[in-house]
Amino acid sequence: MGCASADGRAGPRGARVGAAAPTETTSVGQPAPDLVVERLDGKTLALSALKGKVVLLDVWASWCVPCKQELPMLDAMAGRLRARGVVVLAVSIDQERANLNKFLAARPRWTLTIAHDDKGAIADTLQPDKMPTSYVIDRAGIVRYINSGFVPSDAPELEKRLADLAR
Questions:
Q1: Contacts of 54 (CB under 8 A, 6+ apart)
Q2: Which of 108, 110, 128, 165 is the least buried, fewest Cβ under 10 Å from its Cβ?
Q3: SS3 (DSSP) at 7
Q4: Does 20 score more than 90 pLDDT?
Q5: In terms of residue numbers, what domain contains 30?
Q6: Are residues 37 and 90 in contact, defined by beta-carbon separation less than 8 angstroms?
Q7: How would DSSP label each residue in 154-167?
Q8: Read out DSSP for 49-118?
Q9: What does the alpha-carbon distance between residue 31 and residue 24 come to, in Å, rounded to a whole number?
Q10: Parallel, antiparallel, or unpaired: how do β-strands 44-46 and 54-60 relate?
């Protein structure tokens, strides 16, 4: 399952649900674009700075019901895989930081890295066709798997792919 806003887009600034296949920069087998995100602590993080690590880049929003199911599962996954060189980077595309903060306050602590993209630059670049969308990126910065939408049964497959790449 995946979320879409009332106008049929993946989110406030995301791609339309059912849009064409991902652009060349977000296709499996291609290098991930060098995105720069703002972490919640205000520091910036370039995706290229994570080369050498396996990355799960998740694009999500607090208004998306499947995202609300997915994020705690990704957080647990981040804790299990961190020692193996896996980074889980969850980028919220919420326009209002207050909505993001309210969602995050439901848990006392998060293990994964959370960033906020209120301008929609990440969604504009990646063009996810559903919310959430996860991009599994290998140590060389190549996109190896894209999971569009989320149902709880997706979590074991995501974790297996991350663990396999971390070997």
A1: 81, 84, 85, 86, 87, 136, 137, 138, 139, 162, 165, 166
A2: 108
A3: coil
A4: no
A5: 24-165
A6: no
A7: HHHHHHHHHHHHT-
A8: GGTTSEEEEEEE-TT-HHHHHHHHHHHHHHHHHGGGTEEEEEEE--S-HHHHHHHHTTSS---SEEEE-T
A9: 9
A10: unpaired
pLDDT of 93: 95
Predicted pLDDT at 2: 66
Residue 96 domain flag: yes
Convert the pLDDT of each residue in 59-94 to its tens digit: 999 999 999 999 999 999 999 999 999 999 999 999
For residue 116, give the CATH number of its domain: 3.40.30.10
Amino acid at 135: Y
The answer to whether residue 17 is domain-embedded is: no
pLDDT digits (tens, 9 = 90+) for 104-156: 999 989 999 999 998 889 989 999 989 999 999 999 999 999 999 999 999 99
Domain count, the chain: 1
Question: How far is the first Cα of the chain from the last one, in angstroms, to the nearest whole number?
Answer: 30
- Alpha-carbon gap, residue 23 to 34, rounded angstroms: 14
| pLDDT single digits (tens) 52-61 | 999 999 999 9
pTM of the model: 0.85
